[in-house]
Structures are given as structure tokens and as C-alpha cells.
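Protocol step 4 of 5: obtain the predicted structure for the target chain.
Materials: sequence only (see below). No template structures provided, no constraints applied. The aim of this step is simply to have a reference model before the mutagenesis design in step 5. Sequence pasted as it appears in the construct record:
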Amino acid sequence: MAEIIPFRALHYNPQAVGELAKVVTQPYDKISPEMQARYYDLSPHNLARIIRGRSMPDDTAQNNVYTRAAGYLREWMEKQILVSEHEPAIYPYIQEYSLPGRPHVTKLRRGFIALGRVEDYGAGVIHRHEETLSAPKADRLELLKATRAHFGQIFVLYSDPTGEIEALLAGESHTSPWQRVVDEYSTSHSVWRITAPSLVDRIAEALRPKKLVIADGHHRYETALAYRDFCRERGEANARAEYVMMTFIRMESDGLTILPTHRVLHELPRFDWKYFVTDSREYFSWKAVPFGDSPDAAARFRDALEMAGHHWPTIGMFAGRDAAGLLSPSLDVNMAHFLPSLAPSLARLDVVILHRLLLEDVLDIDARAVREEKNLRYVREFEAAIRMVESGEAQVSFLLNPTSVQSVWDNALAGHVLPQKSTDFYPKLLSGLTAYWLDNPDGT
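Step 4 output (C-alpha cells):
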């Protein structure tokens, strides 16, 4: 059974920080070095100083990126930069955004922020859909131990075909928001508060029988699991560690968008695209796509990939203007025969076919090398993946269509885990709108 409760959010004091846009950030794992520098310049109280601190050459066990983060948190609370809500609440959260590269297409994504009970995957309440890496979890665990606070959101999907929960939330979102900010991608984020116990209870009861699937934030969720176990092992009577901050979003919403994450390969020994196409013919048919020099060549290539992907799993390949095309499993090929260890629902996904057959079988890049990103980089922008080949930064880019929300949901509930970065839910949930401080003296 899914259990949620309201909480007294720790949040920025608008009288102390002025513009909220100067202190909130994208999730920690999306903060590049360039973004980090920009965030630091925006404000001395930007959340990046806590969630994406800078290591120093003279760091020690007593003074390091994690102890500095805890110091910022204490200082900002003492100076009323960060303040706590007076009443427990759940927080309706609406994002209005345009699709990247398609500014004429706008969407609304509706959800709400609450505390969710941390459950082992084996309990069958919360389900993952992607693999995680140990290093990011170790980093987030040290930060959580030092600050005893959750700053980032875990993006969770629930199924509600009739829209019962969204209807319960709707009344509050007709009023002026408690917080509103526009981020660097022109996405507006609006947050309200629901404090009435009767309404909070109705929302919690409506969610209770539902299955939950992690859309984004697997590392943060597994860090919360590890911290819960850490507290239990130490014998700490810390009920607050049994919960973590989550944003709940209805999977049937037309405001959900998943972007593909393209694979860009570099430093492959003796890579030749003609030999690659020949070697892949055991599984794939190849259709060349004229690229040429026209300004809209990349857009036309993307359109061709999208159109082909409506009918059959299709992967785009770009190794140069004369080496652009589409790879699709041959009509007479049974994917289950070549991927016997995988469930049929996985064996038909573009991203799984790419990893298991093209990267591992044809190019001989094993799963460990992929996890460690030895010859591979992940790129969101279609055009950027092409430019990297043209500039000589990479030898070949594999271009993907997005994984569908239904595929994510079905595979997660069946216990099937997709390769890392199989999905990129867009836009991201901002960090800094609300935080969950486990030591709040006023209670949860």
C-alpha cells in the first residue's frame, strides 16, 4: 500500500533572497560544470552550493564538500534564508513548458509534492525502471548524512484513469500560487499548499491502493533506502528517515514528455562505418538517408527516424554526411531468438536492441564499459549528437526515438529494468522549491 503524508517544507524566504530563479536549480545530476559556475554567480545562496558543492585541494575528512554543505544549511536557516512552513501540507505542482526545438508545442504537467514512505522494491509498492550506479548513490548518501535533508524531488508515476486525484487537487490551483518561478529553459513552475486535513486525507486514501513507478530520481530513491537502513542499523528511532520527498504525477496525463537520450561513441579502435553496417546485417536492414548540406538536414533526418519508429523499432546512425541512415531489425529476424534472456516487452525496445546487439555484439563494447562510459557519451540534443561527429569529437552517433510512458510502466511493474538513461522525462523537477529537513524541531 502506498503511504503518503504532508510535511512542513523547508523553503527559501522570498524576503531574504529576492528572485527565486536565482537560488533554485535543476537536479544535481543535470548540473554541468558550466551550469554550476553560473548558479554560483547568480546568488551566494544558490542551492548548488549545497547539492553540487566544489571540492578543494586541501579537503580532509573533517572539512570537505559535505561538511561545507551542512554548514551552508545551518547558516542559511539561522539567517532565515531558508525557513520552515508552519503547518504540514502537500503541495500541488504544475509545470508549463514547450518541447525542446518545438516552441510552438506547449504542455501542462500536473502533480503534487508529499512525503512517501520508503519501501523495498520487493514489497511491490514502488517499482524502478532503470539501473543505477554505485558512485552517485555513495555521493548522495554522504550528503544526506551530513545535512540530514532531502533537497531533490523523486518523480513518481501513478495510474489514475478517471483523474480522481487531479480533481481533488484542482480547486487549489485556481488560486494564486504560493511559489512561481521560470527556469533557464523557459519552463514555469507553480506550487500551491493544501493544509486542510480532510482534503489531505482524501488524497492520501485515493493514492493508497496504487502502484508507484519511479520515472526520475532512481539514485535519490535508493539513497533514501540506504539512509533508512543506516538509521535502523544504528538503532536510531528516526521515523522521519522512513520517508522521502516525492512528486506524484498521473501516468495518463497528456502533459508527460519523454525525450530520447542519444549515444555518441568515441575512441573505438578501427571503427569503419561500412564494415559496421555489413557486420550488423545479421540483425538489421540498412536504409541510407540523404543528408547533404542543407540547413534543415538534421531536422529531416530526425523526422525520418520518428516516422520509421512508428511502425518498427528503428535506430538512427550518423557517421558523417555520407554515412547517415536507419537501422531496423530485418523483417525475417525474430528478436526473441537473438535476445533469449530478455522478456519480449524488453526485446522490442529500441534502446535495448541498441545496447544488446549493436553495442555489445557488433561493436564488442561490454555492459561494464557502457556503465563506466569508456567509449560512450549520452547526449540529449539530436543536433548536438550529429555535430560531435562532424567536429571529430566522436566517430559515430546512434540516435533514438523516445521510450513510451506505457513501455516504462509495463516493464517496471513486470520487474524488467531498462538500460541506464533509457528515458529522459522532460522538464525536470526543480530543486529548491521545497526541501524535507529530517531534524525540523516543529515536526514532520
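Step 4 remarks: The chain has a mean pLDDT of 92. The CA atoms of residues 39 and 212 lie 33 Å apart.
Proceed to step 5.
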